[in-house]
Amino acid sequence: MAGRPRFLCGVVEGFYGRPWSMEQRKLLFQWLKRRGLNCYMYAPKDELKHRLLWREPYTEHEAVCMWSLIEAARKQGVEFVFAISAGQDMVFSSAGDRLLLQQKLRQVAAMGCCSFALLFDDIDPCMCQADREVFPSLAQAHASVANEVYQELGQPPVFLFCPTEYCSSLCSPSPSQSCYLQTIGQELLPGISVIWTGPKVVSQELSAALLEEVEGVLRRRPVIWDNLYANDYDCRRVFLGPYMGRAPGLMPRLQGLLLNPNCELQANFIPIHTLGTWFQSELGSCANPDRAGMEMVAALGDSRGPREGSYSPQEALELALRDWVAEINQQALEPGWTPGHPSVGLKGRSRLQSGTAGGQEVVPDPKQHDSVPSGVDQHGPEPCGVAPGEGCRKVTSEPEKGSGSRTPNGSQQSPTGDGDQLATGSRECCEPSASLPSVAESAQSAGIPMATKTLLSPGHTMSSSNEANTSQNLLLPTSDARTGSGSPAQSLSSTQPEAIRADMPQTPPGTGAGASPGPPALLTDEITASSGPLAPVTPEEVTSSPTAAVTPETGSGPMVPLTPKEARTSPTSQMTSEEARTSPMALVTPEEAGSIPTALTIPEESGSNPAALLTPEEAGSSPTAPLTLEEVRMLVELFYLPYHHGALAQELLEHFRWLRANSLSVGVPATAPDACGGARWRGRAQSFQLLCAETCRLHSRFASAASRALLYDLHPYLWDIRNMLLAASAFVLWLDGHLLCDPGPKGTWGNCFGWCQSITAPILLGRDAEPWACRGGLFGELQALLPVGNSCDLFYHPPPLFPSSQTYLLRPLLPLDKGELYRMCRESLDCDPKVAEILMAHPDLLGDRLLGPFLSLSPEYTFVLEDEGGLCGYAAGALHAEGFLQQQDSSWLPAIRHKYPPDLGTGGPALGQDALEEAVLFFHAEPRAVPLPVLRRFPSLVQLGTAPRVLDVGASRSLALCLLSALRANGSRGVFCQVRDADGQQLSFYSKLGFVALPVAWGSSPGTQLLGRLL
């Protein structure tokens, strides 16, 4: 060997799932060069000929692709390391298998590759009978194969070996006492470097002291395979925070450090940018710096990062944010991208199925599964610590330290061509990986929009593309990489050898599309929403004054929601997002709490000139303007690191936890005259509403202004968070004045959460817990705080094929909503002119049929969905269905029969006539008795509906989630609904919410099914 190789620092593409394309890798090489990084390892687990079919040589076409990749790395000064994973089914004692392995590596060497890696991670630690007869231990078998290959290749200067025990947590009982590692250290030739991930698969921190033990047992300095950003173990998490948790002065203890980043290429800008900054700092602080590396650093200029030996994660993040904003907006201006309408080709195994009311959704491949190590509780995610050093937002919790990881599956993929791909496997899991686009020029030269933000009501500014966004105008064709990438029924987790991959709850396939000719499309499968505030509504207010405003008493009344028009002119809508963030605990006087409505507000959009500082007016007039620095910072803070939340995510969690814990102060009946407590709760709720609105607005801005590549990679994660915050925001509004404080055994908030916590409360895991024990990250923690958080099937559904930037408002019912809800019911019916004439004469007929009993007898359990065109959906319920139905039959129906004559529905066959006849029959027929066993097991009644223009499944499910959470919070353990057999859309939607047909005889209502689900 000519001498010790230089310190390797770069990325490794080693995750389970769809590999990156050749073009993406070439783009990655440019990024590595610009950030002063020098190494890339090719190790995609689901590239068939890397792992599953490792014995097969590359075809001529594949060899040309590989050669071009090696050559592209060489031109950028990046060390290309070709890795192969042969341990899954290799017979180590077989001369044939050894020969095939050597021939495969010699073929790659002939393409110009000079560096190699042999990976024996995530394999069965038991040897076959033939190997047991030859080798006394697995370690000796591995060392024998590695030494022979190393020598056959001429002892290349870079030859890496990944052991089966690649982290401290996999060693028994410890690294220094592991027989496997001791044998590897003794038997492996000194020129072979050993890969190590740290104390855990996803190591929270690395320090020189922690590496001393490893260096001693391996008899050489390790090469770190850093899984800090690996995300293929959880399909709901992506990590955008700065590189941190790695103590200064690590380089003397290492031979290299390779970062395994997110599966999504575009998500890795900040990870790679900050890794480069860390590497520059380490080079500067070493006693004997790598001169080759220092030359690369000098070429970058002094403005690219902190000075030598002074790495600060927060400073590195600020530099990376500015460069990322410039890169994002540069990509958005590239030819072929249309603002608000980027198009992304559909890939691989995603299937398009028709949803309801003209919507469409991605149905995941049935083989796809999410990976979870066996024995890990999936219900309650452990709360993450707030990111240390966050200077941009004020937070209260103590910081924790950074982390790193090798991981299991469930990731999204970037839109890439298939023509340049090598053979790709069908499994999807997680292990080491890496990638990233090319760095944009610095903010000083490119110009970054810095929007001065004013919070406005949702709907104040809408994308121009949204104004025409109806059921016929679908936006952004993009496939769901998480659910549509097509992974197999079982995949090994790179995080643990032979880890069992648990099935992720998936949305059942949809049924027919298109608007139903019946009454309003009762909850369609697709929507996009935004939350809003609410006031309690009494039956008298709804029936007697549909348009009367609610005026709560000063100091004690619940939060009053504003209509979109009112919110736009409300003084409270001018509160800035920074004010909401920096003063979340500011107390509100009783007078203020009673007189100031908690209006849902949204930050104005950034301006259209990426090189100019934008005024609020300019930003509001251009919804497709480039993303601003503050918006990108919000995105990073929502998806930070595996062991840390960003400031925005931490504040959302702190507010929601506090509001839930203190919700009895605004319950009914009031337990004590605690005006100050109620005022403080409402002030905190208002801050929470502002943050939720800001985040929902970010989703809309992101869908309008992001480039198609970035949108493809990150939209599913942001879409999940938006849907969760829509539900959480509306639920918090509902709590004020609707939560029952009865101390009895049923219907109490405390009992509800006592029951929920027995299943979903976060388990206080020790420091040795891996991050996949906290399923879902921010999404999972918010889910656990909802009363129905244990019902995982309510929360897992694929994102839409066509992301929409349309803004919605989700809130409880207001008295003035009745007229508009009735109009929505009437306009949703596609009918013959003769039927239309009848409806004009009786405009409330369909509304009375669908919503009349709920608005009159149970308005407190009604939520509405609103877009720029007005109300477009509802979710209505009755907590005690038995009493509700009795009251409906005894008082409401007799009164309504005088309003509509029984012969109103008679007539010849006509479009819409069946809906008319069904409504009149409902009013005048003998009341339908629901079987008593149903009422005992499913005590609550629900009804859901949306207008045909609602396309995004996320908001419609959030609407249902609000209603079910409200019912569960007041003690309900089950709900049921009544659906006609002919209404296939409704049957499909309810089935996707977990409702099942109840096997009970209901002879008094032919043609109607009872569906139920437990809460």
Automatic annotation (TrEMBL):
Polar residues composition bias: residue spans: 404-416, 476-497
Entry annotated with the keyword Repeat: no
All copies of domain GH84, residue ranges: 7-283
InterPro entries recorded: Acyl_CoA_acyltransferase (IPR016181), GH (IPR017853), Glycosyl_Hydrolase_84 (IPR051822), O-GlcNAcase_cat (IPR011496)
EC number: 3.2.1.169
Enzyme class: hydrolase
Catalysed reaction equations from the record: 3-O-(N-acetyl-beta-D-glucosaminyl)-L-threonyl-[protein] + H2O = L-threonyl-[protein] + N-acetyl-D-glucosamine; 3-O-(N-acetyl-beta-D-glucosaminyl)-L-seryl-[protein] + H2O = N-acetyl-D-glucosamine + L-seryl-[protein]
PANTHER family, A to Z: O-GLCNACASE, PROTEIN O-GLCNACASE-LIKE
Name this protein carries in UniProt: protein O-GlcNAcase
